[in-house]
Amino acid sequence: MARARSCFASAIVSLLIAAPLAHAGGLQAMGNNTLPDAGAPPSAAASTGSYFAQHFTFDALNVDVRDAITRANLAPVSFNQIVMHTRDQVTSEGQAQPSTYTVIDTLENAGHGLVRRLEIVQDNGANIATQLSLTYRGYFSFLTQSISARADNIPPVQGPRKILKFDTDTGAHAAFAYLYGDPGKDAFPDPGQFLCDSGKTYNAAQLNPAINGQARELNCRAIDANGMETEKVTLAYLEKYGVAVTLRVHNDQRTIDTTILDFNVR
Predict the structure, then answer these.
(1) C-alpha–C-alpha distance, residues 45 and 240, integer Å
(2) Half-sphere exposure (CA, 13 Å, Cβ side) for 18?
(3) What is the CB-side half-sphere exposure of residue 27 using CA atoms within 13 A?
(4) Per-residue confidence (pLDDT) for residue 89, from 0 to 100
(5) DSSP result, 201-222
(6) Which terminus of the chain has fewer Cβ atoms in its 10 Å neighbourhood, N or C?
(7) What's the Cα-to-Cα distance from 115 to each of 16, 31, 74, 136, 192, rounded to whole Å?
(8) What is the pTM of this model?
(9) 3-state SS string for 53-69
(10) Where are the alpha helices (DSSP H) in the chain?
(11) CA separation for the pair 173, 128 (Å, rounded)
(12) Cα–Cα distances in angstroms (integers) from residue 113 to residues 30, 150, 188, 242, in the given order
């Protein structure tokens, strides 16, 4: 049976599992599709006309995925843009000391109830990777692309080819089942799944004083096409904004714990 790839990995996870790539330079040769400079202010990186805004849209989705979203009649999110800075501590199997990265995380209302996400990963102030995604409220990715700062070529945008089950209620249990396939190729016949159960509700200011309203814990599991659990993800669904942020990612190789350093709504 084919193994479905996860569509939910954080930028840090994607960076760690990516194959080594050549030196920087190739990303700057894309003409009108040039990626925003990772060192630019987040507002510039997510501006209209950028690669991010052009390629991570409802219209860029596979037709079957667009149909599933249209049938779901998703309510729009209540914000235009949220910019967070986070600190991600990565504890890896066999590594004596954890590694620490900082992430500039920009969430943007993409219409149709969707949220664009741009994550710029930094190590000691140096930009080392960028992840772009188009999500349902921050926790189910319809499109994703992870790019090392050393990349000589742009990797293809990945995402589900067809949605089999799409629960949009975050109040109890949410299940997503999807068929996966590389762009332009047939989907695998076996589904992957992302299953979430709601946990405790608490004051969102516990995550950062700038966050208003309540946060609802979502405990999620990524299941591959063989029915094997590949990853556990803890999210905080921010009820005032209608979007989820990642707090913890755990698999057999590593655990990533995220702290929100600042939170700005624009």
Answers:
(1) 25
(2) 23
(3) 19
(4) 96
(5) EEEGGGT-TT--SEEEEEEEEE
(6) N
(7) 24, 25, 11, 6, 22
(8) 0.84
(9) HHHCCHHHCCHHHHHHH
(10) 11-17, 42-45, 51-55, 63-72
(11) 36
(12) 29, 33, 27, 10
